[in-house]
Amino acid sequence: MSHYRIAVIPGDGIGQEVIPEGIKMVEAAAKPFDVTFEWVEFDWSCERYHREGAMMPEDGIEQLAKFDAIYLGAVGYPGVPDHVSLWGLLLPIRRQFDQYVSLRPVRLFDGIACPLAHKEPGDIDFYVVRENVEGEYSAIGGIQFEGTEREIVTQQNIFTRTGTDRILKYAFELAMKREKKHVTSATKSNGIYHSMPYWDKRFANMANHYPEIQTDQYHIDILTANFVLKPEHFDVVVGSNLFGDILSDLGPACTGTIAIAPSANINPERQFPSMFEPVHGSAPDIAGLGIANPIGAIWSAAMMVQHLGHDDIHDVMMGAVESTLKAGKALTKDMGGNANMQEMMAELMAHMPS
Ligand code: NAI
Ligand code: MG
């Protein structure tokens, strides 16, 4: 019998609506297996920031460290600048728990209208592996002569050998478990003089250790074009923090709606808890209306149980998602249907094995 303690941070807006539904799905799917969960909720959010002046308490990271995983909705709300919510909660968690892999699956499901012409389910099925703690997203740099004609701004990119090699290794290991065994590297070594040629060199070096894996690399500009033009080419795509960020929104967008897309922030060594969250934000435009699509949150929860070692529970949850989308009877507005969230939940639950 396994027991897990999960830290739950619903956050803001529709985060508070979809996260309870993800929990319900896990509980229902886990029933036949010998696995139990304890869900401990934290109200860390922009609401808390308004009330107490901080997104989370000072010892927030210490509190989370004791959990097996973190399940997060979304943070960010009008009235609190986005850099405050990001640097006050999400980034400290990702960095202090060394969640250096951001993993985002991209899959076209049967029943979803694909925005790309002539693509069938099965054509699009790949992973974006994004470096999540260094690269272009650094706080190193500064402004001098601010507000004058001589104003000068610098922003440093950070590429360490450890940081570069470990994300590349994760991508190759993931590809080893997949049928196509193919890794694509996102680069820009024609324009960026130091860091990207270095990235290419480490990629080639890593590829030498995996002779079974087929590799290629594209500059980020043509790579984005190829996501749209020939998504069936890709299997595992690895990129730096910035390139991975862009690709991991573009990928899911090519499969219909970002509202179903999940993401995992992983510490592969398991020294710290990993964090699972839908790709979408707090959607203030539809918050409180009860019409949010819960699938991004549900798929994220499925990745979480898989990370904890339970492929069986993951597969049950994803089976229900697949058959609900295929049946097409209770789709939310973002997918062209007219079901509300509870109607879609009823359909998802009905597709769970009883
Ligand atoms: P968003 O993802 O919240 O919304 C974009 C559009 O997609 C909206 O029209 C929204 O209604 C729709 N949408 C998103 N999720 C949906 C769902 N589950 N079902 C149905 N429709 C859905 O992105 P936006 O508007 O750029 O950001 C809103 C706030 O969320 C901002 O404060 C932003 O900083 C924050 N945000 C937080 C993220 C996180 O916590 N990881 C990620 C992205 C944005
Ligand atoms: Mg993003």
Q: Could you please describe the fold and organization of this structure?
A:
The chain has 354 residues and is α/β, with parallel strands linked by helices. The chain folds into 2 domains: 1-100 and 267-354, 3-Layer(aba) Sandwich (Isopropylmalate Dehydrogenase), CATH 3.40.718; 110-258, Isopropylmalate Dehydrogenase. 39% of the residues lie in helices and 20% in strands. The longest helix has 17 residues, at 311-327. The structure holds 1,4-dihydronicotinamide adenine dinucleotide and magnesium ion (MG). Magnesium ion (MG) binds at residues 245, 249. It holds the Pfam family Iso_dh.
What's the short version?
Its EC number is 1.1.1.83. The protein is an alpha/beta fold and 354 residues long.
